[in-house]
Specification:
Two copies of one chain form a homodimer. By secondary structure, chain A is α+β, with helices and mostly antiparallel strands. Helices cover 36% and strands 26% of the residues of chain A. Chain A has three domains: 251 residues, BirA Bifunctional Protein, domain 2, CATH 3.30.930.10; 98 residues, Anticodon-binding domain (Rossmann fold); 71 residues, C-terminal domain of ProRS (Translation Initiation Factor IF3, 2-Layer Sandwich), CATH 3.30.110.30. In chain A, the strands form five sheets. Chain A has an eleven-stranded mixed sheet, with helices on both faces. In chain A, strands 1-20-19-18-16-17 form a six-stranded mixed sheet, sandwiched between helices. In chain A, strands 5-7-6 form a three-stranded antiparallel sheet. In chain A, a hairpin with a 5-residue loop joins strand 19 and strand 20. The interface between A and B is large, with 49 and 49 residues.
């Protein structure tokens, strides 16, 4: 077994992320951003495919933990939408509205869901009677609509947002807390399987979900230094059950309000993270678990030996295709070199080259997309070898991404230093006293937002607040965000 | 092996369909119609589950035949929406509209898709360059929105409609014709697997899809005699490619317009057909292929023998659960009789009873939901026996439904006779001369609509037109419809 290695660079994605990303979206058939309504994009075959894969990974875990799939309407009435005061404050400016003329001539406004609390919780009120109905755990994968006034960016900030949202109701605050942990674990597992690394942050109070007691976010790193929030878990306490009057009979016969959670997982943002964290200058580098083509076979044809090579390729194809999503690229109008280039851009995890030498020696030549490392193995060992390679690729992507995340984090003690770091595409780690004044100062001077403190790791401040120099309460992460 | 049989009646669904159906929707956790916006319903856990199963059955077949999954936006601009004259005439009155205020203060109206031709075809124009790009076959499973002014009915006539829509483009009329056949075959196979019977009808010209050359429809029977259109296939010819300027370079170097098809499969209507065609007075009767619970195990406990029965039940559960979706109903707060009642309503295809006698004799007692027939088999043969039963149940449902369809069809030669037949929940088979005058007369006198002529079977008129008595051109089917 011999091995060689070519260099893998990801220069362009770090120096000119936007161009690199936009070009790749179209070339690798992920998405088409030319649809003539701002913030609405078309998901092309590979984008739609990968999103479906992510959806199934997530939904399987949700269902295994007792979440029931249900589907709720797209629209709320203005009355339903307005019940929770904080919630409407947070969302009312960014909703799409439909004017509905009813038969009787009356007009009413329908709100297109920016998220579905106001649509789902009136139903919870009908369904929940007693403690025997709890916990209630439901989920749906749908699009939500937000009238983004900031510049839109395909996959990152769109007006039509494909996501999964889960909503749960519980008897007690401790049940709700346990559910926070379960939700985090589900999202963490999916992101781990996709090799996406992130900071798990508790958002500062001023940035929590409108109507929540507190919010936990999964902040994935991006090559341009801007955080990509891929998922959030919100403990709603009794805020919504008060507003929507969702009560239950307790075991002791008295009535109480339920405790609620909602959590969301953004499919287009997770897709963006897969592209942005793993890709390189040659194109996509897809984790095997979601790749539309996991293995591409490329026959190298020389005059007079076409038949043997094609036959051998087809035999190997037949052997692999029931185990992995395999493509035999036997197009005749392009060269093997062009095929290499094409499938590198498409991010196929493993390339199998088969030429006269491979036939003669009874071997195959394999190339990993992630490292471009080439190796040969005996034909009889191809299934075993590829199984191991797939595992190695997944693991390498996961580890590489994690290393990059920690490389991007920069400890700062001064605002100016932090501003430079953010400009330099870093995520700033700093101490904060917790005051709104200092939060404001940080935002103004640093040009990034306080994303929050780590939820999974207790970090105690070993220095004064970066803004006022007084006693700090917490260690926070500061970054630009999408 | 012994066998017994209880009577199965479906009286209520034929005598009072609406009540029977509405009650069942909520009781069997299919859908909740209490959401406070007209025509928008909530799909509960079993409804959502069955729809997902139907979706996967269909999408697998679409993908196997080369249709690519893509996702297109919810909204069109008014300009895009207005390009095809017939199309806008057909749909403009029933669209929901969103008013969009852009940054510059300009307002524009967005049309919420009632179907996606006007959203997808501008993209086809960008993607299609030459014959090498054809055929182009895409599909998506999404909701479409139609502002129904008639009374809404859950699953049948709603304003939010879950469906799959496919759109294809071809080089030639003969390629398009071949695609019509492929589309019909795909839908036919799915309906066959679900045991749903239907008439495959070519709609009369005045009732074809707005913008189509002709339309083929899958009209499923319903217990109240009203036809339930579950799928349609439309040959669009060059009507839309003209309007959206979708051209390609032919093999000979000249340019031409593409030939197009669109076809749609209504998930909520197919779900309605499953409930309505197979259900009986006890509740749902689900085809095994979509049943959330395919087998329910019910232990029958007698004092002093609980342990053995539960142990035996758990062993059998362990044996079945990896092969079928199996539920062990070991609830302690309700009786076996109540469980029987509950699972009959939920439509679980096979019930397995296990009591002391079963333990003692090493057998199980199986009950088919479709016929309520009971039989016993040796424990060692349970997997084999259930496999056969599942097959028999599917086949019985399919055959029973087909028999009912042909029972409902009544040959009529006079308008009065036809009117009585429609009133009596029949589908009328009659001869028609093809004139609009007679179509109008039929509608007025019979109280049903001309649904069209059979597409799969050539039927030649053996009698004069039912309305004018002149020479008939075709045999048509007349029925009320949802």
């Amino acid at each position: 077994m011999s091995s060689g290695q070519q260099s893998v660079t990801a220069l362009k994605k770090f120096t000119n992320f936007t161009n690199w990303f936009d070009e790749l979206l179209l070339n690798a058939k992920i998405a088409d951003n030319r649809y003539p309504v701002k913030g609405f994009i078309v998901y092309l075959e590979n984008g739609a495919y990968i999103i479906e894969k992510i959806k199934r990974l997530l939904e399987e875990k949700l269902e295994k933990t007792g979440h029931k799939l249900m589907y709720f309407p797209l629209v709320a009435t203005e009355e339903l939408f307005s019940k929770e005061a904080e919630h409407i404050k947070g969302f009312s400016r960014e909703v799409f509205k439909i004017e509905q003329r009813e038969e009787k001539g009356a007009e009413r406004i329908l709100i297109v869901r920016p998220t579905s609390e106001t649509i789902i919780y009136p139903m919870f009120k009908l369904w929940i009677r007693s403690h025997a109905d709890l916990p209630l755990k439901i989920h749906q994968s749908v699009n939500v609509y937000r009238y983004e006034t900031k510049a839109t960016r395909p996959l990152y900030r769109v007006r039509e947002i494909p996501w999964n949202e889960a909503h749960t109701a519980h008897e007690s605050p401790s049940d709700a807390e346990r559910q926070v942990k379960e939700a985090i674990e589900i999202y963490r597992e999916v992101l781990e399987e996709l090799g996406i690394s992130f900071l798990l942050l508790k958002r500062p109070d001023f940035d929590k979900f409108a109507g929540a007691v507190y919010s936990i976010a999964f902040d994935a790193w991006n090559p341009d230094g801007r955080i990509n929030q891929v998922g959030t878990v919100h403990n709603l306490g009794k805020n919504f059950s008060k507003a929507y009057d969702i009560t239950f009979e307790k075991k002791d016969g008295s009535r109480g309000l339920v405790y609620q959670l909602c959590y969301g997982f953004g499919y287009s943002r997770v897709l963006a993270a897969i592209i942005a964290q793993h890709g390189d200058d040659r194109g996509l580098v897809l984790p095997p678990i979601v790749a539309p083509t996991q293995i591409v076979l490329i026959p190298i044809l020389f005059k007079g030996q076409e038949k043997e090579v094609l036959e051998y390729s087809r035999e190997i194809y037949a052997e692999l295709k029931d185990i992995w999503r395999t493509t035999l690229d036997d197009r005749e109008d392009i060269t093997p070199g062009e095929k290499f280039y094409y499938w590198e851009m498409m991010g196929a995890p493993i390339r199998v080259e088969i030429g006269p030498r491979e036939v003669l020696e009874g071997i195959v030549t394999l190339t990993r997309r992630d490292t471009l490392e080439r190796l040969q193995c005996n034909r009889s060992e191809i299934v075993k070898e590829i199984s191991q390679l797939m595992e190695k690729i997944s693991q390498n992507l996961r580890e590489k991404s994690k290393r990059m995340l920690y490389q991007m984090i920069l400890d700062c003690r001064e605002l100016e230093e932090a501003a430079k770091a953010v400009d330099n595409k870093n995520i700033v780690r700093a101490a904060w006293c917790g005051s709104m004044d200092c939060a404001q100062k940080i935002k103004e001077h640093v040009g990034g937002e306080i994303r929050g403190e780590r939820y999974d790791v207790g970090e105690h401040p070993d220095r004064p607040c970066i803004a006022c120099g007084q006693q700090a309460k917490t260690i926070i992460y500061i970054a630009r965000a999408y």
